[in-house]
Amino acid sequence: MNIASTIFYFLEAVAALAAIGILIVRNVFYAALLLLITLLCIAGIYVLSFAEFIAVTQILVYAGGILVLIIFGIMLTSRISGKPLMVSNKYWFVAIPAGGFFFVLLVNLFLKQSYASSVSAPASGNTIQRMGVSLMRDFILPFEVAGILLLVALIGAAITASFMKKRGEDVSH
Predict the structure, then answer these.
(1) CB atoms < 10 A from the CB of 51, how many?
(2) Domain residue spans of the chain
(3) Which one-letter DSSP state was computed for residue 63?
(4) What is the pTM of this model?
(5) Is 119 helix (H, G, I), strand (E, B) or coil?
(6) Mean pLDDT, consecutive 10-residue segments, the chain of 173 residues?
(7) What residues contact 135, with CB distance under 8 A and at least 6 apart?
(8) 2 — phi, psi (to 5°)?
(9) Which CATH number describes the domain made up of 1-88?
(10) Which of 110, 116, 155, 160 is the most exposed, having the fewest neighbouring CB atoms within 10 Å of its CB?
(11) What pLDDT, on a 0 to 100 scale, did the predictor assign at position 69?
């Protein structure tokens, strides 16, 4: 086994354990941190698969953007209520058989799939450059709408925090 395979299996194991940890922990903030670990391990797997653009996108968009907003929301909510957000898992008897069913279904589908490799000619030009040009030329409207939506969410969270502070409640403990 070479070093790339060792790193792949390590990242795979850490991502799987962190994903299982998300299901087990009761504190929502710790679950968000475990989600960050999972997303970073998946980005590492993308790097090992020579999909650097997807890895960088994974880190910037999910780990850097969306997860930061999730953690910000968790921290703001816990400051308002004065106690950490906790969840309870009372439906284990339904979740375990349902999860087992979907696991068996996925394994069955993977075993039936044919994985014959086909070698294709490499694309001409830089793939990342073509993606960037396509993003800024063909998909500029969804790109800008997503940016504006994230900006509005951030402004709304800041206004909510300042409104709570003006009412006499200190949200910066």
Answers:
(1) 15
(2) 1-88, 126-173
(3) I
(4) 0.61
(5) coil
(6) 91 94 86 90 91 86 80 72 70 87 92 73 67 81 84 79 61 49
(7) 143
(8) -90, 180
(9) 1.20.120.1200
(10) 116
(11) 77
